[in-house]
């Protein structure tokens, strides 16, 4: 098959991101199955914390598990943030400068840092 150079618009298009004129924003996450598995493990950790509270476990042990859950959620958030930045935001920058998407990205980073 002959290889041809991609136009900037073709290179910028990402099958994970909605088209620019999309009415609803939907994004198919790459590595979706692994991401779902990670979230299900976190769900199990939260259930473990609930059991620890119900069983009157030692406060420090419960807090340690809560810290582990928060770290795991942060890891998932960073993975999704990375996908968004390298997919959706990158595409928007290449198409029209991405001013709105950069503002949106900075806003969500601010929320994550609180």
Automatic annotation (TrEMBL):
InterPro entries: Metal_Tscrpt_repr, Metal_Tscrpt_repr_sf. GO terms for biological process: negative regulation of DNA-templated transcription. Pfam families: Trns_repr_metal. Residues 1-29 are annotated as: Disordered. GO terms for molecular function: DNA binding; metal ion binding. Belongs to the FrmR/RcnR family. This is Transcriptional regulator. It comes from Komagataeibacter melaceti.
